Amino acid sequence: MKHTILLVFVFVLLAGCSGYYPKKIGDPVPQLAREKMIDPDSGKPQKYWIPVFDKEETVSPLQAREEERRCMYRLYEGKNISELHHPNMTHKTLPKKKHQLWAYSISYVEQTTKSGGFFKPDEVIRKNYSTVFNIFTDLNGDVISCSWVRGTPDYLAERRAKESQGEARPAQ
Q: I need a surface site. Which of 7, 73, 93, 118 has the fewest CB within 10 A?
């Protein structure tokens, strides 16, 4: 009788967990999707402008995620571009001369650890990343929208090269 109660308890416990647990594991983690940046002049989706920067501001990965979240949650909108202080900020006036597109870049090093196994030490992997921010403003400098693209320096250089060849140039 003791073993029967134990077996019933284990069966109920497993049956209770089996429906919920695998479903929870298989579901994707909900994330806030980034909206496409819309060109205020044309109303069409804007491709990223990735200019060549003289210098990049180096920050920690946590600071980079914080700035990405500020942009994603539209915390820059309504502020003036002069409130953003970045050493490598550059801009261009859009063709209809009603808006400006500003860009700046931050770089950071993300560090991950790869397990070396039982007898080997863990391997520390460091990778350089950059985030390029694109910010639309009116001619007075008031921020209209913000978007960003993140990648390794090689990836961003590849996108910049495609842009210079005309494959990914901004909508005009």
A: 118
